[in-house]
Design goal:
- The protein is mainly α.
- It has two domains: 3-186, no CATH class; 249-483, MetI-like fold, CATH 1.10.3720.10.
- The chain is 75% helix and 1% strand.
- A two-stranded antiparallel sheet has the order 1-2.
- Strand 1 and strand 2 form a beta hairpin.
- Helix 1 runs antiparallel to helix 2 and helix 1 (3-28) runs parallel beside helix 6.
- The radius of gyration is 31 Å and the shape is flat.
């Protein structure tokens, strides 16, 4: 049974359980809810949660574990001579899954019968058969891959039926157990609130464990990279020249230089404009103007970065080339340059600086403004000498948060700055950043055991440490500010 329908059935069972649990509790109290230990809704919620939560938990765990178990079982049965010299076991398993999914699709569309899919032989018609249902294969299907794909389908189908049976049994068992405990003396509210607390802790744990998993994956792969490539050359070399044929030079300094150069230009654009906009909105604008202007500024934060990248590639780059290119000052060779990406990224960061600074300026106590006005200061003098000094720690925190956002940007850099890893002071030269090279190193059929592919994790770990440090510093400053003025 498809997972969607399985979840739908369990959800319907939980709704029915809510109504029946509530009715059973009232019946046990003779229709007088005042006799019950808890409100009737808690009894219904107890039955619903007992049927829903364990079943959905099993679905979640099963969906994660089943592919891992099937892949481990099938990959162990693939003979070594079935793996081409130019391929790896992971690529062969990708072909197995693609063929298995194609056979499932062919059976569902009636191109093949279920029996024909099980007895299909590895001849030249398989690619045509799967191509007819929209599954493209890059190479011929060998007998070993076809046999593994058929086994994959069998195990996957058996796992799906087993999941259906266990989930329905668990949901029904929870339903019956909760109904058997439903009576006037049952402390339903305590049980439901404890269950909700467990769900909240589980939700928080998922976020923490996800972060921990990301960090650990970066750390382990970074360690593998430094086993193949010396860390001293990675952090000190001035050359970035990866070559999958061997002899790569993987120095991070040109990438860090491009990342910081573009980020500085972006901040030079975003910080003055964003800060001046925040001062105007908080101190000068009328409520009507503020109600219109602030949402319009914040719309910039909702525009996808790929749109900013296209804007940089198609509009800002050609415009700068007309002014600073060969027809103008002669400083710029192409539309992709540090200045192109920096200007567009700065526009993207304006709402980050503006919104955060506006909230921080508004948090300055009105009594400080009134005291300044009472001493005869003008509005501009009050802003310069009272409000901005008081809000400065928070504004610095907002700028640092915007800087960490700029350092991690990818699409604007890919489309607007070019792909050249170089050390140059000219802002009209094409350069690249750490994030752009992470994308390029993991694109294509790269062998993940090679340093040219594993370097992406080392780059990601370096970027993670930099942005984490900026975020911690910014949060420290903001927290110190809040403790002072709240």
């Amino acid at each position: 049974m498809p997972v969607f329908w399985l979840v739908l059935i369990v959800g319907a069972m939980a709704l029915i359980g809510y109504g029946l649990g509530r009715a059973r509790a009232l019946k046990s109290a003779g229709g007088d809810s005042r006799v019950l230990h808890s409100l009737p809704s808690f009894y219904g919620a107890n039955v619903a949660l007992s049927a829903l939560v364990p079943a959905l938990g099993l679905v979640l765990v099963w969906l994660i574990a089943q592919p891992l178990v099937i892949n481990a079982s099938i990959s162990g049965d693939i003979p070594q001579n079935a793996i081409p010299e130019s391929s790896t076991l992971s690529l062969v398993m990708s072909d197995v899954r693609r063929v298995a999914e194609g056979l499932d699709l062919a059976v569902s569309q009636g191109v093949l019968s279920a029996d024909a899919a099980k007895t299909l032989s590895a001849d030249g018609t398989i690619r045509d058969t799967l191509g007819a249902v929209g599954v493209a294969l890059g190479s011929d299907v060998t007998p070993e891959i076809l046999s593994a794909a058929q086994t994959y389908r069998t195990m996957n189908a058996a796992g799906s039926w087993m999941l259906t049976a266990l989930v329905l049994a668990l949901a029904f068992g929870g339903f019956v157990f909760a109904m058997s405990r439903t009576n006037a003396e049952f402390r339903a509210r305590n049980v439901v609130e404890s269950g909700i607390r467990v769900l909240l802790v589980a939700a928080a744990s998922i976020a923490i464990l996800t972060t921990l998993g990301i960090v650990l994956s970066l750390i382990f792969n970074t360690i593998e990279f430094f086993k193949l490539y010396p860390a001293s050359e990675f952090f000190t070399s001035l050359t970035w020249a990866p070559s999958f044929g061997g002899g790569s030079e993987l120095g991070i300094l040109p990438l860090l230089w491009g990342t910081l150069y573009i980020s500085v230009i972006a901040l030079l654009v975003a910080v003055p404009i964003g800060l001046f906009a925040a001062i105007y909105l908080s101190e000068y604008a009328s409520p009507a103007v503020r109600g219109v202007a602030k949402p319009l500024i914040e719309i910039l934060a909702g525009i996808p970065t790929i749109v900013y990248g296209l804007f940089a590639l198609l509009t800002v780059g050609p415009l700068l080339l007309q002014v600073f290119g060969d027809e103008g000052l002669g400083w710029m060779q192409a539309g992709t340059a540090v200045m192109t990406a920096g200007l567009v990224m700065g526009v993207m960061l304006i709402p980050f600086v503006s919104s955060l600074s506006d909230d921080i300026i508004n948090a300055v106590p009105q009594a400080m403004r009134d005291g300044s006005y009472g001493l005869g200061a003008t509005k501009s003098e009050t802003i310069r000498q009272v409000i901005l000094p008081a809000a400065l720690p928070g504004i610095v925190g907002a700028i640092l948060l915007a800087a960490s956002r700029a350092i991690g940007e990818t699409m604007i850099v890919v489309l607007g700055a070019g792909a050249a890893a170089r050390l140059s002071m000219n802002p009209f030269d094409a350069m690249t950043t750490v994030t752009a090279k992470i994308v390029s190193q993991l694109t294509g059929d790269a062998d993940f055991a090679s340093p040219e592919a594993l370097v992406a994790f080392a780059l990601g770990m370096t970027l993670f440490v930099i942005t984490l440090g900026l975020n911690i510093f910014a949060l420290y400053i903001v927290r110190k500010y809040r403790e002072q003025y709240e």
